[in-house]
Amino acid sequence: FWEQQIPILSSTLGFNHALSTAAASLTSMGYDAKCAIKDMFFDTISITGSFDQAFKSSLEAYKITTSLALDKRFGPISTSAVFDVSFYNSIIDNTADTPNVSLTVKGVFSK
After folding, report:
1. Do 30 and 48 touch, CB atoms closer than 8 A?
2. Model pTM score
3. Sheet with strand 98-109: strands edge to edge
4. Is 83:71 a contact under the CB 8 Å cutoff?
């Protein structure tokens, strides 16, 4: 028998809907989720994800974004790493499709 408890610091779910009554305007919908975990080897682990869509009469584009952030403190040194991945897909124009990946690492020394 094995049991694991994860101390969740915070979690959120979000929904966004924007529309216009103007002719040929875009309607957008977005879904977001975030979860932060604490008291493991890392001081804080944050995981986020989002899915956004744009419509006119049918789906025109969507974007998927995910992020993983790790924070750790070693005495007077604070470190963090953020790994982001996103993909934009245009249904209308395939030349506009854009994958993005980034890794940001920071370190701060404080007295």
Report:
1. no
2. 0.74
3. 8-18, 27-38, 44-55, 59-74, 77-90, 98-109
4. no
Q: Which of 8-12, 36-40, 56-60, 99-103 has the lowest mean pLDDT?
A: 8-12
Phi first, then psi, for residue 60 (nearest 5°) are -110, -30
Token reading at 60: 């025109």
Which region holds residue 24: left if phi is over 0, alpha if psi is between -120 and 50, else beta?
left
Q: Identify which of 63, 74, 3, 2 has the alpha carbon closest to the alpha carbon of residue 29.
A: 63
CB atoms within 10 A of CB 46: 19
In this structure, what token pair is assigned to residue 77?
Answer: 């040194």
Domain boundary assignment for the chain: 8-19+26-106
Convert the pLDDT of each residue in 35-93 to its tens digit.
Answer: 888 877 888 889 999 999 998 888 889 999 999 999 999 889 999 999 999 999 998 88
How far out from the chain centre does Cα 102 lie?
12
